[in-house]
Amino acid sequence: MPRIPTKSPATGAPLPPHYIHTLNSHFVDQSSRVRILRGVNLCGSSKTPVGKPSWILDGFWEAVEAADGDSFVGRPLQLSKQEFDAMNLGGNEQLVADEHDQNGGYLGGQRFELFSDAGEADIHLARLRGWGFTLLRFVFTWEALEHAGPKKYDEDFISHLILVLQKCKAHGFFVFLDPHQDVWSRFTGGDGAPYWTLLACGINPRSMTATQAALLHNEYPAPAQPDPENFPAMIWGTNYSRLASQTLFTLFFAGKDFAPQCVIDGMNIQEYLQSHFIGAVSHLARRIKEAGGLLDECVLGWDSMNEPFEGMIGYEDVRKIGPSQALKKGSCPTPAQGMRLGMGIKQEDIEWWDFGSFGPRRNGSVDIDPNGVKLWVDPELADEKDGMNGRWGWKRSGGWELGKCIWALHGVWDPSKSTPSGLSRSSPQPGGGGKTTEVKDVDVLIPDYFLYSPSSSAESPGGEASSNEKVKVDFMEDYFLPHLQDYFAALRAHHPELIPFIQPPVFHIPPALAKLEPEDPCLDILKGRGCYSTHYYDGLTLMTRHWNWFNADALGVLRGKYSSPIFAVKIGEPAIRKSIREQLGVLKDDAKLLGEFPTVIGEIGIPMELDDKYSYGGRDGRGKGKGDYREQVKALDASLAALDGGNALSVTIWTYCTDGSHKWGDGWNGEDLSLWCADDERKSGSITGLRKDVIKRNRGSRAIQSSREEKDKAHATVQEVVDEDSSSQRGPTPTGVQMPPAGNYVSTPRTSSAEELVGFQVSSATLTLGDLVCTKRLPQSLATSLTLTNATSSRATLLPAYTAAVKRVQSISTIDNSHIVPSLSFPAFSSAPMAFAFLTNGARAWKAFVRTYPLATVGMPKEWEWDCNKAVFEMTVTVGSEDRSNELPSDGDNAADTGAGFVEQSVATEIFVPLLHFAKDEVVKKAFGVPIRSRALSSAAAGDPQRVTVTNHRGERVFPVVETGLRSGEASAGVAIPLLDDPSTVSLALEPPASKFPQLEMARTRSIAPSTSLNQSRAGLHDGGDADTASIASSSSSGDDGVQDGMEGVLDLEVEVSAGRWTVEGQVLKWWYPIPLDPSTTMAKSSTSTGDSTVVPPASAYDLSRKKSTVSMSSRKGKGTAATMMKAPPPKPDVEGKVEYKIRIRRRGGPIDFKKLGIPENWVGLGPRPNKTSAEESSNRKGGSCCSDGCIIM
Fold first, then answer.
1. Per-residue pLDDT averaged across 147-155, rounded?
2. Which has the closest alpha carbon to 1098: 1083, 1079, 1081?
3. Catalytic annotation present for 384
4. Mind giving me the DSSP string for 107-123?
5. Has 307 been annotated as catalytic?
6. Distance in angstroms (rounded) separating the CA atoms of residues 991 and 993
7. Active-site position among 146, 497, 603, 1054
8. Closest among 113, 248, 244 to 188, alpha carbons compared
9. For residue 631, is pLDDT > 70?
10. pTM, entire model
11. pLDDT exceeds cutoff 50 at 1015
């Protein structure tokens, strides 16, 4: 790794501590560590306004035709009403969607209120951090910014977006912003551009379905009788090969060349569209800059337009389907046929394609008749007088004739010669006996119109134009690069240090910026900083909704790697996984065309509704497969494992949606790729005993108080639970129990002195952030830390919006830093079992996407592998003298007096070790209410057998005991459980355990730091080592004998390292190892450098005489026995002065075996739910009933 610069390559300014470099094909922090940034797209729901998913037709057109369009306030995450009120939006306290009951009702016929009392943004962000994510691709659309009209920006949405960005920063995320689009706009079957852009281009959006210029989810198959539930999977992508998208993208990128007569407001339509798009995004950048504290500290950069499309630019012949059109499904008109349909002309013999396991297959032809409906705006209905538009304010040039196809206007074809069949009779030819012949596509006048640049035709020596000398257009060089130059120049005016995330069309090779001449103005696009943000999907799984035993190298086929597609076929899972990794390796190599910059796979993912929604219990939700995501784990792991190995790629997975459902997926065009879904949340907290059923708070209801004082007064009450999969009705309230008029109710598990039942009801609708995380006071000094796990690092210093109401976005300097705020480092969960239940609840295929990976590496991560099925991680790093942090002075000043030639610095390599893969069995059991140990509840209060005392960090509180009639003539006393909303309910363990859990002891290491160096970390742990209340951490404290004693924790780790020392903080393993010094440097003295809270040892602390170099743990009768880690001499540097180190991390005893622990595998998405019939029979004998999610109601 080259030494990091001390000044910005873009501006020449000195660099702040939070600065992220893009060097040597990697992200690099100011400590010279390689940063692997992994996260998710937040979120797919941002494509549409809140309450307006793509399948709803009612009000879809009216909102944009008669008003200023739909507000996107609430995307990507909901804020609380308090936060919303603080935005001062003129009294618009809620957005209410129209009532709909279409196809079961997305809104359930109820008034949809945007903001709940508490808001759920922090809960979702805490979940994403708990999964180990550090990077967010922040999705927004042009429509969200400028839906009301040209240059009319939605300041309310922008204020909302900035507050969400502040939360992202508070939770420790890096962000790059994505101006998202798919097939141009919501009104062309996708998302992105505002409604008025179609009118500006002379298009009537209401004519999309009739002319097949685009397929709309909410109008499929016909506006009069829509059936959006049967919208074919991924057919929306064929809109790229239909007239609307083909035209709009051609105008956006190349209107000057191919539509010179399309002039509006005195400029060509290309300049008009691009100036408004760039202006809207740059306005957002300006507002973010004005907010302060976000640019560079949180917002690293900006993506270019999502998945840009060439339109018809470079099309060889409009009479044919282009060879680059890989997606063929349903009707597939040629561009010429699309132009005729756009003018209302019936077309016959349009190709029809099916997409099966072996790709697209021709399946006959169809006729399409628009019945005279035209795509182009009728001049009588255009509200334009003398070219001046009365509503939108633009002035159209006189040469732009409305109601006529613009491609006919430019001589590409002649509608007067068109026929339904595309055939015309030609004139009799001389010598032909007076016979006429039928000629195909005689109305097409210039079939290769889009292949050549009209302004670059060469002339023959005779002065006549020669088609052989015409210059072919190059989309990337001629149109895409100039757009990027204007786009990033406008953004840099407000964000000078931005990282440009360059995204060419899908699977296209990026522009060769690294080979440009020094005088080329396009060099200004990067200014020494950049990232390649390409996308990748396993196309076969995406299209077929099935994980197949075969696949194909799709990228290789598109790039011409194979003489025949048959050679691209891969058989068997190992071959498929290898192929996907090789394809991602090719994409990583493409980045070198830009320069030595990193690659982020901006989108990758798999559909969750595989095999006709088997994992949802089928389409009716009653099947055995409900909760079984094993196939999704296989498919997603194959894609995400391809990021590992030698690729060492950063990624943002597609996607995370907060309001998806099993029926409608992500709420957009039938896609269902979200990693989390509320429909997958467990409705109960306990495997055994009575189910904890928390009634969700009614959003917007003021009858339920959110204050802690009111929650403390509420009482837990027994109630019967309804099986969602049956038609049974809720039974009567148990005898003697009076239901309070409002509040949250939980049923009480049957307990005895022999067992403890915990389990956690962790629904996003009922939790608050205070339920999940520890709190701590911010230090007086907000100095930047050199460790990723420090909650007060520069990325998390801004007080989150949930601690104080702010009327507009405020910087940290205006807020008193003495407030108590949550510690949000992966986050510092207050309860490990609750965290486990929370992180798995609603998560889909989490076993694949919650991965062990290096967050930051001192040196270069040569390769790593993570086996999610075995819970084993292995990594090799290469380290040289240049990998030392800039915090260290010169080599000579840091050389050890031992002459060993190595030094250790304070910053460590940090590896994410997820709780969900490494948790101790006791933590997992407790998370789901499996009986663990014998624990007695505390004595009844004041001798009252009807009350029980709960003692915790909030003091002593008394709760009633409720009688529950479980069988006729037999009553069983149950204990009322404090509400989960109360953070005191981290455990039902009211007294110390009779015996401690099996301990996780850190390996004893040779003393390196002073004896008190790690004692500070003990404060975050429960003194008794209770896995329920302890932070998710394993730390060490040293004894007087110079050996650090292990402490019990909640992660069952076995670690081997080839050299160095390690410790665990939260879900992060830190690893320090010797760094070679420059061999030419004379080592004169030893010294100790300090960085963050870690004390750096002198190089002499390494005992170079030792030979054993592994750290291991063994288990003997449940007790962790620590082995001794001997410091091995670092390997001899190679000729380049580099050494290699290796680490191996595994879960002691193998991966978590949920079945062995007595936890239904469908509760964690790893198997089918138990047989309902047998479960019912068993439970009936016990006086209970079976629930839909696998628990037993006693």
1. 97
2. 1083
3. no
4. STTS--BS--SS-SHHH
5. yes
6. 6
7. 603
8. 244
9. yes
10. 0.81
11. no
